Amino acid sequence: MFYFIEEFFKIPMIRKSPLSATLSGIGSGLGQFTLVDNNLPLKVGEIIFGKLYPNVHVWGTGFIENKDWMPFYRRNMEFHAVRGLLTKAKVEKILGHPINAKLGDG
């Protein structure tokens, strides 16, 4: 993903933690944007960072596990593409509304 964006769009990329990243592309990283359910200090950090950095664009990312995920802590997630129908269904369940995202993994 880094190479693609830097090479074709000429946009310099900087690797960031899911807590402050503005782009999630390719891979199984969507679970990194959901609240943890068993670690209170981390959950508080996620909530704080979710308010400081509310925006993230999702390009072809999915979930690594088939489980019930906690809500997203990032408040403004724009789903341009998700990995497939299962990911789309999980995202819609978490958000409580349909998304208009393309399907595909890079």
UniProtKB/TrEMBL annotation:
Domain of life per record: Bacteria
Which protein is depicted?
A: Uncharacterized protein
Q: Name the species this protein comes from.
A: Bavariicoccus seileri
Organism taxonomic ancestry:
Bacteria, Bacillati, Bacillota, Bacilli, Lactobacillales
